[in-house]
């Protein structure tokens, strides 16, 4: 099937919540779409962070092929880190694979600095420079006139959560105006427009999303109604033959506690004391294992690291898995499971993968800060990512036959390319 394709990204939107808000009439445009197509559960890659998930969305590949394992990755051969961006993708993104189709890629995380695609790119977070986040540069001034913000100004949410809701609403309003302008004035075959305000709201105010007795509940629901109005206006810009999809990069749930993995590793003697290793660069042979955010564990083995520690074989990894899965906080499990890298990653960059990836139990947010001084401590975040319960939706008859349920993020790009009439290098479920 050929024709244009609109993809609306709802960052962090859980499928259950989308269906609930649609059913309750808060998101009527979403309700109409769900009645016209098929929505299935989408599973994020491991770990369930936006940088990794959107990279898989763009490429149809897992991290061992596209090369993005998290918001921070290790420079091979040592302890130095870097922040991955679009230049680090090692698999072709959608705008390359949809050659000959003009693409609008708007606010997709991990697309900074905006590359030359022959279409339009407005980079999503992390994007430190507005000038380098927009291509072609002639669009900078129209976006500024519409008050476009690369991200929501968080501010002091704890002190004034209602003001934060106002900032979210203002950023979303400007983003919606800008999306409409670009879809109206720029030719496109594939348009991807990501709304990140859902993620920001849920991280800081998840309790107010779900608690009907909260004094902020109605204000928070108002943001979802605003998201729905944006969705409706984007859909209005489509013709009857155009494909429409919705996607979220991960699900969401409550964060009842923040568990700091490196603090626990220090406490248990696996990571040298903080006064001796104030940064990752100071790690030496006394350290057996360290974590990168949120809970990617790297065994400090000789050969991979310059100051590796001998004797860190399979039995040590098994010891870590057993100890982590037995952890309890206030009688509740902290860890749901621990993946070995071969279980979740496939591809030529497997040697860059973490050795183990820890998956949190429900209600737990795992954190990889290197200098945390407590294993469990409060945080301003009240919501956290989940790997499951993300959204993929496709309008039209093709959705009835083409969508597995549940579906993996790697499958999204092949589905979109098929809808555009572009042969995908790897079919749905192919896991190439």
From TrEMBL:
Recorded GO MF terms: hydrolase activity
InterPro entries: Alkaline_phosphatase_core_sf, Phosphodiest/P_Trfase
Keywords, sorted A to Z: Hydrolase
Top-level taxon: Bacteria
Hydrolase keyword on record: yes
Identification of the protein by name: Putative AlkP superfamily phosphohydrolase/phosphomutase
Species name: Sphaerisporangium siamense
